[in-house]
Design goal:
With 254 residues, the chain is mainly β.
Length: 254
Amino acid sequence: MWSRLLGACALALLMLAAAPASANSALEFFGDAGDSAIAPDSDSLDITGMAFTMEAWIMATGAQNGDGIIVNKEDSYEMALRAGDEFMFALQAGAWDWFGGGKPTMNEWHHVAVTYDGTLSQGWIDGQEAPSGTNANTLDLGASDAPFQVGRRVCCGTTPFLGVIDEVRVSDIVRYTADFALPTHEFETDDNTRVLWHFNEADGTAVADDSGNGNDGQLEGGPQWVDGAPIAASTAVDARSKLAATWADLRAPY
């Protein structure tokens, strides 16, 4: 019995040592028109119902020169820091138009989100409701053939983001309906997650999608890997849990 339990503890220690540590990195964009992280169009990126959330962690490092795009799928959904560095968003649900307001402070990390429930499109900054707009009709979101991009859009003049972006998630559910506490850990994927980019690669030009939908991306232009948002990673949790359980078994009386 003791031999078996000691062996299990040794295995758990090896799992803990081998578990990959998150780099907790993010992407910094410098306001250059060619900079983005981009994934090709897919059915999973088209959310055509009446439940939607897009969110990210951002840190603007200067005044935006035009539309500082955070997330964009042209003619479907996008959010940005626009003129005056206000947080704005557009959804293709009856009218492709900008709504929103509120100004995140520069050089500080902020969580931003947009939700849509078929009637109300609502912006959120750091867990608080931001000024929003109400769609005139109860309509599904529109689909498009456009790629999914972070850091810019491909049309409409000057659109590159100036700052750092981390933890981008798009979901087919309304995740926030009232003021909420800021997330303290990386987003986790679930059945409602359509794309989830942690940006923890820290090197190279590939961006992995953690949603399970295969919406992996590539970097274009010159965004740089930098330190990520001040949130905890969720890697190695299983190994630590296994270790704790094993020690509990080991100490239990027989």
